Every structure is written in structure tokens, then in C-alpha cells.
């Protein structure tokens, strides 16, 4: 056989395998256990401990334990609500949950809003049966949904009011606050919500780039202890040379190497989820869907 033809055949086979795998991977859900510990003051994002930590609770150091998922994109989510509820139920039985938290992006396109509402409504009903609060925020794609649509999803919208949870492990209270997302086009960066004195403060924000635009962080005031975010999908397609973010997307954090996982920024310990759904196309490559049990450490 002609050597050039052989090379082309090998390349074609390789591309076919990658293409087929990218269609399979959206069905493979990773349930990760994340431990967020207090972050020391940092001048930039730095990698810190915690990703895929050993499951189990050291109650001397845990403030809250929550189940976090983000980026549903219901029209291209291959993880069923029943499957996600099983993971929530298992996490609740294994160590208890103080809340289930949604990090935004219910849908990608407006015509599919009913599909997104029904999915989150089933999660909400399941949380009610388990006696677990369901709280969350909307994402940049959700600016095309009405306030009534978002309210129909069944989660307590943290953009409207913070949600306080007394710790089961110590005398402190964890306060979860949310930040709205102005949408994809002509984005406006909103200033962070205020923090509560004497409490462990957790910010739930869809796009982690928002942290870079908080003036209070430059002033050294009202810094959140922790933040939970999504939006980046972990890249969704892990291609060489950071291709997705350099060519397709315009996000800031990936340009300095922050795509997913646990990081620290100016005193805030941040977890960025890969999300459970797919944006634009139902494919993933070397970037499985992720839902997480997040153990929040007692703040300093």
C-alpha cells in the first residue's frame, strides 16, 4: 500500500475513534468529592488542594456539605434527572447534605426552556422528598428565560436573597449568596453581594470571571470565604494548545490556565465545575460531565 495512503488511513481511523468517543463521553458522569479549605491571601489564582479528595467527613473541620452541579443545558444533557437524583440520594445517605446547589445555564436556546424547567423541577421534587434545600442561580444563557420560567424550576434563587444554613458540625452559620449573570452579549459585570459578619460566606456565581471584576477584592473588603462556579465546562473539548478558549471562547481565566477544579483568589477558595451538560453540540472529549459533593471547611 502507498505510504501516504497508509498515513491518511491511520489519521482517518484516529479521527473516527475520537469522534465516536466524543459522542459517548457526555453519558459518563463523574461524581467528585471536593474539599474546600480556607484560602490564604493570594494576589492571583493559585492551585490549592482538594480535587477528588478522599470521601468522608472530618466533622472537626467541616462547616457544610453540599451537592453542586452546573451547566445543565437541558437540550444537550445526557445525564438524566433520575440518575442525578440517585447520586444526590446516595450522598445524603452517606454523609448528609445541607443543600443541593445549581450553578446556572438551564438551557442553551429559548425553545427548550420547558425541557430545562421540567428537569430542574424533578430535582426540586426529589430534594423536597429528602428534606434538602434546593438553591441556585441562573446562567448567561438563561437571560432569555423569563423570571417566571426560572421560578418554575423550583430552586430558591440566590440572586434575590441569601440563604443561611446553620452548621451541623459547629456553632457557625453558612450564608450562600448568588450573583446574577447579564448574558453572553454586551456583558455587564455586576458587583458582588454583601457578606454577613460572623458567618461563613459562600458565593454561588455562574461565571467565575466575575471574581476578577469585584472592586471590593482590590480594596481588600467583603471577601467571600468560598465560591462555587461553572460556565467553563472544563473546556468540554480538551484539545491541544488550549484551542477552545484561544479560538472559540473569550473567557479570561482560561487564558491564565484556570479551567476547572479548586483554586484560590485573594482569600477566596473557589471550585469551578465541569458541568453536567453540553453547550452548542452534544460532545465532550477528555472532559467528562461532573457533579460534586463539596465539603466546605470551617472558615478562619
Descriptive report:
- By secondary structure, the chain is of the alpha/beta class.
- It has one domain: Purple Acid Phosphatase, chain A, domain 2 (4-Layer Sandwich).
- Helix content is 24%, strand content 22%.
- The longest helix has 22 residues.
- The radius of gyration is 19 Å and the shape is globular.
- It starts with a helix and ends with a strand.
- About 4% of the residues have low confidence.
Sheet with the most strands? 7 strands, mixed
What class would the helix/strand composition place it in? Answer: alpha/beta
Per DSSP, the total helix count is 6
Mean pLDDT: 87
> What percentage of the residues does DSSP assign to strands (E)?
15-25%
Order of helices and strands: HEEEHEHEHEEEEHEHEEE
The gross shape turns out to be globular
CATH architecture: 4-Layer Sandwich
Quick synopsis:
With 300 residues, the chain is α/β, with parallel strands linked by helices. Helices cover 24% and strands 22% of the residues.
Summarize the SSE layout with pairings.
Layout: H1 3-24, E1 30-36, E2 46-47, E3 62-69, H2 81-95, E4 99-102, H3 113-130, E5 134-136, H4 147-152, E6 156-157, E7 163-166, E8 173-179, E9 200-205, H5 215-219, E10 226-229, H6 243-248, E11 261-265, E12 268-272, E13 290-297
Parallel strand pairs: 1-13, 3-4, 4-5, 5-6, 8-9, 9-10, 10-12
Antiparallel strand pairs: 2-11, 3-13, 7-8, 11-12
Please give a handful of descriptors for the protein shown:
300 residues; alpha/beta; seven-stranded mixed beta sheet; 24% helix; globular
